[in-house]
Amino acid sequence: MAEQVQMIALSPTMEEGTILKWNKKVGDTVDTGDILCEVETDKASMEYESAQEGVLLSIILGDGSGAKVGDVIAILGEKGEDISAMEKEIASQSAGKAQSSPAAVEQANPVSPAKEETAAPAKAPVSSITPDQPGTAGSGKSSPLARKLARQKGLDVKQVTGSGPGGRVVKRDVESFVPGTSSVVSMSSAQGYAPAALGDIDIPVTGKRAVIAKRLSESKFSAPHYYVKNSVEMDNLIAARNMLNKEAPSKVSFNAFILKMAAESLKRYPLVNAGWFSDKIVQFGSIDIGIAVDLGNGLITPIVRNVGNKGVVQIDSELKQLIEKAGNNSLKPEEYTGATFTVSNLGSFGVEEFTAIINPPGSAILALGEVKKTPVFDESGNIRAASIMKMTLSCDHRVIDGALGGRFLSELKRTMENPVRVLF
Amino acid sequence: MALITFREALNQAMDEEMARDENVFLLGEEVAEYNGAYKVSKGLLDKYGPHRVIDTPIAELGFTGLAVGAASVGLRPIVEWMTFNFGLLPLDQIINNAAKLRHMSGGQLSVPMVIRGPNGPAEFLSSQHSQSFASYFAHVPGLKVVAVSTPYDGKGLLKSAIRDNNPVVFLEAEMMYGMQGEVPEEEYLLPLDKADVKREGSDVTLITFGKPVHMVLEAAAKLEALGVQAEVIDLISLRPIDEETLYKSVRKTNRAVVVDEAWPIASVGSHVAYLISKNCFDDLDAQVEFVSSEDVPMPYNHTLELAVQPTVEKIVNAAKKVLYLD
């Protein structure tokens, strides 16, 4: 059964994005987690990870197209499936909107390479077909303060792209504006002019950024960090997840399994689930695991409480709610403070391995890299392919000595390689 | 510092001023034998006798007028209205006599009196007895109008109000009389014409007065959890308004939310919002938001009663709006 792939919000404030480049071609098989395309959001260029699977039957909005959140960008289904009715329906829906139609996309493709050559220093592919899309400069509205700041900086406020309601230019837009650029697609580069030299940008440290700076400096400068690493064969865990997902009411995420495995290992090494309080070490009674969530303009670590007593389906549903709340800034303080252990997963960014900064009051944080097919030797010396993930545990030496950190990580590795160990 | 209730702080202020100046006297319904409807005048009859602590008939226009006359010939009356809901009857004495005698006599007469009592919504009192009349008095040239939110402010400001040579309308709140706060043992006075920054912050200015100060401080704490540092200004003086403190703050934060538990039209809050829009125009990064009670008579149904008034959530949402966080 064919299904539509819609543009999703790839940053908390994204309303519309530009598809820079499709990574999949029509006819390619798409698995959950595969990168479908790269999208330029209001914040940054992001990879669109597919939450659906199937064969890519049609690309509705091609490279360089603007797409509002919710717009259909592609169709997935079974090989050879007839999707002409669905395509017609999508075309008739988009005909009413001022969006690029499939016909426009076809015309755009031969044009854009030539444009890219003329816009020499521009790194991002230039959208030549949607100069009037919302988000480009010049909606005309601006706050009085934004106008005053623009005057002081010698800018024409009309050049600045507004992020306020109805495209109103506000203080933050003027402060982050660099002449010759724009946060989406600048008018000048779209017309092929070379942008002016880049100036320094002062980004005021407020709110979230100040909290991140303070808390992580405190952790890194007061807790003596050391790191232990190993590689984990994930094939059994992936198989276990696929098996469970056949029966689960909704698909259980990979991270839910990681949290479950970490909690089971913490039960076996409870001193890793502990915190340093100057005159005492507190071994926490509950296993409350935080997971780092990227907000585009910062990060936050919502916490799943008492993970040790929950199954992956429940962990996953709580995780989904927390991540959704994180995305719309509605987490309550009690939902992100007091993690006894933390997981940070940069695998989706193609990171092989990294070290993370401990998130107090916990004394350890687990940093996960990508899962990658890697040749390994089996017991008889033959090479076979395995899905390898590298993980790094950062420990606070005041609480967790090296041997304990090593034992814990080894336990976690064995549990992940053989998930049935959680039954032991 | 002693931890005392609001009613004790106000009682101390009247007690100290009555001891200090024999021209000061208190009159109102039930203020003497019954020690006051809210026990603010407790013990004063025993201490100062029936000539200086006077139970009046239920006739606000009459006893308020009596006080205006007494003040114009040299005494310093404190008029207690059992509630400002009863203050509509003597409005003529306040607006046409108390506020204007100095002006109309070319400065020959002055009216050193205080009119005090609970103003604003309370609970379960329905439409006629649960409403804020701050703007009725703040509207009138010749009056000073003060709204208090803490026992400390209450005592220091009531003493200053009693010593002031002009009619001072002193707004308390029924829901606050039991509220506790630190008050110094030694004597102190507070200026009648200054706002107070109750909480410092850099991102948005929340402006209010009277009982809602506490709700606004709660909203500021909620905002802090979102990474927003809100500055909270307690106006205190509703006439004259301490514009300097307001503008200094808004010029720092570029954003303002005004909170007033009165109805929205022609309220103190709407006037403050106008002042900021006019005088801080070039410093505003967003429209001034205004959280008031809904434009309806107070419902008796408790759920509706709470729903029509400002809430912490409404204030947080207004702040998020001017910060472009919603």
Multimeric state = heterodimer
Instruction: State the total count of DSSP E strands of chain B.
Output: 14
Helical content band of chain A: 25-40%
Question: What is the average of the pLDDT values of chain B?
Answer: 97
Rg of chain A, Cα atoms, Å? 24 Å
CATH homologous superfamily heading of the largest domain in chain B:
Thiamin diphosphate (ThDP)-binding fold, Pyr/PP domains
N→C terminal distance of chain A: 42 Å
Beta fraction of chain A: 15-25%
Structural class estimated from helices and strands of chain A: alpha+beta
Structural class, from secondary structure content of chain B? Answer: alpha/beta
Radius of gyration of chain B: 20 Å
Protein chains sharing the most extensive interface:
A-B, 20 and 16 residues
CATH topology of the largest domain in chain A: Chloramphenicol Acetyltransferase
The spatial strand order of the largest sheet of chain A comes to 9-18-17-16-12-15
Overall shape of chain A: globular
CATH domain class of the largest domain in chain B: Alpha Beta
What about the largest sheet of chain B? 7 strands, mixed
Please indicate the percent range of residues of chain B in DSSP E strands (runs of 2 or more): 15-25%
Order of helices and strands of chain A: EEEEEEEEHHHHHHEHHEEEEEEHEEEH
Task: Write structural notes for this entry.
- The complex is a heterodimer of chains A (424) and B (326).
- Chain A is built from ten helices and 18 strands.
- Chain A has helices at residues 84-95, 102-118, 144-153, 171-175, 187-190, 207-222, 235-247, 254-268, 312-327, 402-417, and strands at residues 3-6, 16-22, 29-30, 35-40, 45-49, 54-59, 66-68, 72-77, 225-233, 274-276, 281-283, 289-291, 293-294, 299-300, 303-304, 341-345, 364-377, 383-396.
- Chain A has a six-stranded mixed β-sheet, with helices on one face. A four-stranded antiparallel β-sheet of chain A has the order 1-8-6-3, with no helix packed on it.
- Chain B has two domains: 2-183, Thiamin diphosphate (ThDP)-binding fold, Pyr/PP domains (Rossmann fold, 3-Layer(aba) Sandwich), CATH 3.40.50; 196-322, Rossmann fold (3-Layer(aba) Sandwich).
- Chain B has twelve helices and 14 strands.
- Chain B has helices at residues 6-20, 44-48, 60-72, 91-98, 101-104, 134-138, 151-163, 212-225, 243-253, 268-279, 302-307, 312-322; strands spanning 2-5, 24-28, 53-55, 76-80, 114-118, 144-147, 168-172, 180-183, 196-199, 204-208, 230-234, 237-239, 256-259, 289-291.
- In chain B, the strands form three sheets. Chain B has a seven-stranded mixed β-sheet, with helices on both faces. Chain B has a five-stranded mixed β-sheet with strand order 9-11-10-13-14, with helices on both faces. Chain B has a two-stranded antiparallel sheet with strand order 1-8.
- In chain B, strand 10 (204-208), helix 8 and strand 11 (230-234) form a beta-alpha-beta unit.
- In chain B, helix 3 packs parallel to helix 4 and helix 8 packs across helix 12.
- The interface between A and B is medium-sized, with 20 and 16 residues.
